[in-house]
Design goal:
The complex is a heterodimer. By secondary structure, chain A is α/β, with parallel strands linked by helices. Chain A has ten helices and 14 strands. The chains are: A alpha/beta, B mainly alpha. Chain A: It comes from Levilactobacillus spicheri.
Amino acid sequence: MLSIQHIRKRFGDVQALNDVSFDVPDGQILGLIGQNGAGKSTTFHSILNFITYQGSITWQDHAFTAQDFDRIGYLPEERSLMAKLTIEQQIVYLARLKGQSAKVIRPQIDDWLARFAVKGTRKSKISSLSKGNQQKVQLICTLIHQPDLLILDEPFSGLDPVNADLLKRAILDAKQRGAAIIFSSHDMENVTELCDQLVMLRTGNVVLHGTLQEVRNQFGKTELFVTTDWSAQRLANLPGVAQVTPRQPGQFRLHLSDPAAGPAIFASLTNGHYIEEFSQQPPTLDEIFRMKVGEGHA
Amino acid sequence: MKAMLKTWIVTAETYLRQIKSWSFFFMVIGPFLMLGLTVGISYVSANSASSSQEIAVVGTNATLRRNFIAQHPTDVNAKVTTVAAAKKALKANHLAGYLVLTTRQHQLRADYHGNKALSKGVQAQVQNYLTTTQQAVNDQDAKLSAKQRALLQRTPQLKQHIAAGTGTANLAKTISFWLIVTMIYIILITYASITAQEIASEKGTKIMEIIFSSTTATSYFVGKITGILLVIITQIVIYLLGGWAFYAWALSRPHLHALIGQYQALINGVLHNLLNLNLVYLFIGVVLFTLLAAYSGALVAKAEDASKAAQPVVMLGMVGFFATFPFQNNLDALPVKIMSYIPFLSSYFMPMRIINGTVGLGTQWLSLVIALVTVALLSWGIGHQYQRLMLQTDSENIWQHLFRRHRA
């Protein structure tokens, strides 16, 4: 388990991290979200000992040492490989630095290239690959030594939906074999889909922390999705409805000022008759993210 | 053990990448190409120019002409035998000129016709030949006795008395000095840029974050520097093998063998001066400058600044190189003694003193220990800061980096 307890980091006058705490148990995925400059990369750099910090970060109940390097897989925010090497040389070099034997890694390369649908052979020069394929090779370098702790900084950035799915599958495979995984993303859909828990940072402070459902439930079931022949104006006049947003003809999204108004709205809308859709939900992660960012700017 | 293995992985990667590069190939082959080109051009030039550099010797006295040609077969075109033929050949630029040898009433005379004056060498040959021949004619005409002839041939004598071996030893010192100083300078200039470039090219790239999540910065830095030093050693070994191969080839050629035999004492003296503590100084000097170049490379804000980063190191090397010039003939001067202890400068000045034989073994070792301690401190200091320097990708310049307080 990765455990981060009360870490603080200051760059000059800027408090980059302020009392950040969370755990990532083995076999779980934690999503780290927040605006640019919120402190996500600084958190990763603290875990990897790239910078000094106050507080405590432990891995399997001990402080990180050089001995733990081999069990970490790290994908930085910007992609970067050694352009003059071939795919094979690059993968073998980085895997050997992770304590793997070239003899063990070489036979696996073709499988990994196929798994990520990399356009190129093991003998292709890195410089000859497209940006997307270089990104996939970098992902292979991060995963091929089967790390127990995966740290992925914006892993989905720049990937098309097909390649994003390949990555998601690889992340879920790593989770399946018991790896603790922490990744940052601006795409709330990916976070919703993959994460067991999430942490939102705003200017170095933890503003949200918990499982996806816990976080969403904190905001109450204020979103109501209905399909009805009522007009938007008529819906807006219902008690407890703060805002009406048409989705499709006959389909509306109602934002409630009070979640408790749901049953009364249901009774009014149905009046004892069948309606196609009535779904009361908490806000989506995307909406929560926007709300929290908005609070910071208020 | 694991850290050591990772250091060697970095060393091997750095070494193989440099060795396989075209720039290394051309760097190694460059001097050989230059040498071959120079020899080739000289050979072609000498051959193509030979006919127009020759002179013809003509005249009415066949014996006089024949004796001159017999004594000086080179530089003379013996096929031209008449003044008319010589004039024609000169006009066609097939001759540099022609010499007309005549005798009138036992008085020898030589007239040279050409577009340029005779070279000093040929002029001396002609003058010498005429003097000797005229002397013989004079002796005959004067009807002198053998005793009188011997008396007239008496000349004053100048003899130099030089202590045995000193001349050769001094020349060996001079050659050794230039060899070692030039070697340090060339290696330094070449590899300071390569090292700074190698380090700086990685700065600002995220590959460093991946590497530092795999091994310690110190382990990586030591691996990198060791790789570069192995490249330097490879180049030196290639040159040593090349030199040895040339030497072996030269010994198999009779005329070169004789030449080497003539200078054997000098060659032995130079080798003796080089293959001692000086070689250690050469290596320590290269290590010191390589470390400094690596540090400079790590200080740049972006890879394009690498050439600028190497400049302070190159300048320091040049200062050391040129500072030796005024003291070549004054090796007991106080500045020489002081500079032979200062790291970076001692790489130039202590070998000078060792070659000159004006320094004791204790002093040599003291200077060497100072240099080694500097290597250790520099390695530790840079290794300690390396991660912070390499992961910084801001736009601060070298001086801001140097003087900025490390804020945790």
